[in-house]
Design brief:
This protein has about 120 residues and is of the alpha+beta class. It has one domain: 2-Layer Sandwich (Alpha-Beta Plaits). Helix content is about 55%, strand content about 20%. It contains four helices and six strands; from the N terminus they run E-H-H-E-E-H-E-E-E-H. The strands form two sheets. A four-stranded antiparallel beta sheet has the order 2-3-1-6, sandwiched between helices. Strands 4-5 form a two-stranded antiparallel ribbon. Strand 4 and strand 5 form a beta hairpin.
C-alpha cells in the first residue's frame, strides 16, 4: 500500500484538480517502474508483487523518481505551478490490513523525522 504524503494541503492550497493531477502522476510513476498498481482511495494505491524485496525495490525506485523529477500543473486560476518534489509513504504486507499497519507506522516516522 502506498500513499501520497501531504495530498490534503496540496488540494487545499491549489485545488482538487492539482491534487488529481498529482495522483495521476503518482500512478504513472508506479506503473513505469513495473508495479502492478491499483487506485484505492484518494492518494492511496495498492501494489502487487512477487516478494517483499521486489516491492521494496520498485517502490523505492518510484520514490526516487518523484523526488527528482518535478512536474508542472495548472491550478483552477490557470496559473502554472511547478511541483518540485513529491513524497509518498508505503507499507508492505501479505494482506491489505498488514500493509496498512506498516504504512501507518512509516507515516508516523516520517512526521517525527520532519519535526527534527
Amino acid at each position: 500500500m502506498s500513499d501520497v504524503d501531504n495530498l490534503k494541503p496540496i488540494n487545499d492550497r491549489f485545488g482538487y484538480s492539482v491534487g488529481d493531477m498529482l495522483i495521476r502522476r503518482f500512478a504513472e510513476v508506479l506503473t513505469s517502474v513495473g508495479l502492478d498498481a491499483y487506485h484505492h482511495l484518494g492518494g492511496t494505491f495498492l501494489c502487487k508483487g512477487e516478494s517483499y524485496q521486489e516491492l521494496n525495490v520498485k517502490l523505492s525506485e518510484a520514490r526516487q523518481i518523484l523526488r527528482q523529477q518535478p512536474f508542472s500543473v495548472s491550478d483552477v486560476d490557470g496559473r502554472v505551478i511547478a511541483i518540485e518534489s513529491t513524497e509518498f509513504s508505503f507499507g508492505i504486507g501479505t494482506t491489505v490490513e498488514e500493509a496498512e499497519v506498516f504504512l501507518g507506522q512509516q507515516k508516523k516516522l516520517r512526521v517525527s523525522e520532519s519535526r527534527k
